[in-house]
Design goal:
By secondary structure, this protein is α+β, with helices and mostly antiparallel strands. It folds into 4 domains: 113 residues, Alpha-Beta Plaits (2-Layer Sandwich); 309 residues, Rossmann fold, CATH 3.40.50.200; 143 residues, Jelly Rolls (Sandwich); 70 residues, Sandwich (Immunoglobulin-like), CATH 2.60.40.10. It contains 14 helices and 36 strands. Helix 10 packs parallel to helix 11. It is globular.
């Protein structure tokens, strides 16, 4: 081995060295040493540290270089190199790992560097979604940073002391209040009898973090909030709306607690006279109907009518074949239920099979138990959605195995009139197979297979698979759960941020393989929009007991705060929540429906999305979020939301019959003055704030809308 290493390192002592950095030389030497030490195999250490890729069975190392006077593509290709993009005098290439000993002296190049492993992070996200142009105010009346908007985050794992939630000068916290629904030492928020509210900066600092709960001392909420509106705490990992304010809820895992949180956040925002956007990077598949008709979805729609904008992750079940749609014609369905297994997950219970049929068309459901040879060991009866009125809690005995299951059904679910069945099957040991059986005379039935925990928060799909002839395998379609299925919510898919490589090539941008696929079971399009959600860097809770790899750290008031990468639609949702805050910062009068429409209408397409149909796409929604164009559009859209703001101008007289004046304004600060009716239609334009004739208007309520210093302001008045 000593001789092999000597031979490998000999080329680096030659006099014809290509210029390179010390880092590159050290990295190449280290890579060669590790390759030799692993007996010519690429081990985990090599693959984790270096840009090594297996391409068609061969291992390659990625480089960037400036071409030399003797550059020859054919020479490199004859030696097995893969030559990539060339722009001006820069070229990217992949070197066969067995050619590494020659690359630093190769006269094809005048300068060479080993390619760093590219990991899309939050500092790339603002550029990808064009938020950096909004911050700078490029061709806008001013820059927008979410300063006058509140972002509410429902999650677990908040660090109230993190500098990422302070202003950019690290002087004052931007957290207005937090409600920890798990901590019952009190005081609870006014009107509630559970949880603890922290409503002052001192309370928040003394509390330090939310309490341990079903997720232990988590960090998810800290990460999500940082993406939506973190200041960056002096790092480059700044959130989208970095001057917004926050409301945090560490919420219990039930629908009522969720709605309580919305109400608390809405009241808190109203008290501040500011617009509210709520981010929900969570979801479930067995919480009532998942077609936008559930009570939770209805409540969400109601709060939207009151002016709250909801943004939610689409889910992380892309690529999971956990769904089947069966069109029955006097026939039956058989499919294997696959179970999740983890020896370290103490709360693991089993699988939840949720089935939803066609209104007015009953179906039946049951189980079979097969051995490893697919021989039938035991079988339940068929349970019909039309006749199974009670709760079934029973078991099957299959040799030495006992399969516990329970079942509930509806002939017509109250919110959508669909027959439905929820079949929960406890995981069994051994090699026996659990098969779902179903039959119906007619109608379509959707089935989902989702892991269930004893904490009732399982949220990932497991596949349905075929056991041969007569069996049906699953697919990834119709993968949107609750609350993402809600009609007025902005539901967000995930993709990888675009970035430019050192060679000037645009990379990234592909759809995340985990991003859930639509549509809903009623064929409503979801998701609505997509945003970056792969390897996004943001703040972690300094109190968490979760494991992670630190990207960077900052010290603040005697404590160390880490930033780390996480992936998921949990990360793409707060990107859009931050963009919504930018939109509402520019125009706080917009309704949630207008905000959603602006986001959809201004979405961008690229070579990854392709040309999307007008009705949208089940993977991308309407395309990729475009903050810059959305804010530009928002400034020109007439909204009707009334804020309880203390504006420094008044309408006089009010009520009026002949004319009105806008007192306290100077015309030179105003770029637009319009009078709107209550439907948002413009009925008057004016060049002056001093005299606006309203004598031709019918009696009733109107808005006066101005754009001043780059922001929309408006007030009501009455024509008598």
């Amino acid at each position: 081995m000593r001789i092999i290493l000597l031979l490998l390192l000999l080329p680096f002592s030659g006099i014809a060295q290509v210029q390179s950095s010390g880092n590159t030389r050290a990295d190449v030497q280290h890579l060669i040493s590790e390759f030799a030490r692993s007996h010519g195999q690429v081990n985990d250490e090599i693959r984790n540290r270096f840009a090594v890729n297996n391409i068609n069975g061969e291992e390659y190392v990625s480089f960037l270089a400036k071409i030399g006077a003797q550059f020859s593509t054919s020479d490199l290709e004859s030696r097995g190199f893969l030559v990539g993009a060339k722009i001006n005098d820069i070229v990217s290439f992949k070197c066969p790992i067995n050619e590494l000993t020659t690359v630093l002296s190769d006269q094809n190049f005048s300068y060479i560097e080993i390619a760093g492993k590219i990991k899309p992070m939050l500092n790339r996200v603002p550029a990808d979604v064009r938020a950096d142009s909004v911050w700078m105010g490029a061709n806008l009346p001013e820059g927008y940073t979410g300063k006058d908007v509140i972002i509410g985050v429902q999650d677990w794992g908040f660090d109230y002391t993190s500098p990422n939630y302070y202003d950019t000068l690290l002087a004052n916290s931007r957290i207005l209040a937090a409600w920890d629904q798990f901590k019952n030492s009190g005081p609870a928020p006014a009107g509630y009898s559970y949880g603890t509210e922290y409503s002052t900066p001192t309370d928040l600092i003394n509390a330090e973090s939310d309490t341990s709960n079903i997720y232990s001392y988590a960090t998810h909420g800290s990460h999500v909030a940082g993406i939506a509106g973190g200041s960056g705490a002096g790092t480059e990992f700044r959130g989208i709306a970095f001057e917004s304010e926050f409301l945090f809820t560490t919420f219990l895992v039930d629908e009522s607690a969720v709605i309580d949180s919305w109400e608390w956040m809405k009241n808190s925002a109203d008290a501040e006279g500011k617009r509210l956007v709520v981010n929900m990077s969570w979801g479930l598949y067995h919480m009532q109907a998942i077609d936008g008709t559930s009570l939770l979805s209805q409540a969400l729609d109601y709060y939207s009518d009151l002016g709250v904008v909801f943004v939610t992750s689409a889910g992380n079940n892309g690529g999971e074949n956990f769904h089947i749609k069966k069109d029955f014609v006097n026939d039956s369905l058989l499919t294997r239920i696959n179970f999740y297994y983890s020896p370290t997950l103490a709360s693991l219970w089993g699988q939840s099979i949720h089935a939803w049929g066609t209104p007015g068309e009953e179906f039946s459901i049951g189980l079979k138990v097969l051995n490893s040879s697919n021989t039938l060991l035991a079988e339940s009866q068929y349970f019909s959605t039309a006749t199974t009125a009670g709760y079934i809690d029973t078991f099957l005995v299959a040799g030495t195995d006992t399969v516990f299951f329970n079942l509930s059904c509806d002939a017509a679910y109250p919110t959508n009139s669909r027959p439905q069945a929820r079949l929960r099957v406890k995981r069994v040991a051994g090699s026996n197979k659990i098969v779902l059986k179903s039959q119906a005379a007619s109608g379509s039935v959707h089935f989902w297979n989702v892991t269930e925990l004893t904490t009732d928060v399982g949220n990932w799909g497991m596949p349905f698979t075929s056991l041969g002839s007569g069996y049906t395998a699953g697919n990834e379609e119709n993968g949107i759960g609750t609350p993402a299925c809600s009609n007025t919510a902005i539901t967000v898919a995930a993709y990888a941020s675009n970035y430019y490589t050192g060679g000037g090539t645009l990379a990234g941008g592909a759809l995340a393989n985990f991003s859930s696929t639509g549509p809903l079971m009623n064929d409503t399009l979801k998701p609505d929009i997509s945003a970056p959600g792969i390897q996004v860097t943001s703040s972690m809770s300094s109190f968490t007991d979760a494991a992670y790899s630190t990207v960077t750290s900052v010290d603040f008031q005697g404590r160390t705060y880490d930033f780390a990468r996480l992936s998921g639609t949990s990360m793409s949702s707060p990107v859009v929540a931050g963009v919504v805050a930018l939109i509402l910062d520019a125009n706080p009068t917009l309704t949630p429906a207008q905000v959603k429409d602006i986001i959809i209408q201004t979405a961008r397409e690229d070579n990854h999305t392709g040309v999307l149909p007008p009705e949208g796409d089940v993977n991308w929604g309407h395309g990729k979020i475009n903050a810059y164009l959305a804010v530009q559009t928002a400034l020109g859209v007439v909204g009707t939301v009334e804020l309880h703001q203390d504006l420094d101008w008044t309408i006089y007289p009010n009520p009026a019959s002949e004319s009105i004046s806008l007192k306290g304004l100077e015309d030179e600060s105003i770029t637009s003055i319009k009078v709107l009716n209550m439907n948002g239609a413009v009925v008057l334009d004016s060049d002056s704030s001093q005299l606006i004739s309203v004598s031709e208007l019918k009696a009733g309520m109107y808005f006066t809308r101005i754009v001043r210093n780059g922001k929309v302001e408006q007030q009501k008045f009455i024509v008598k």
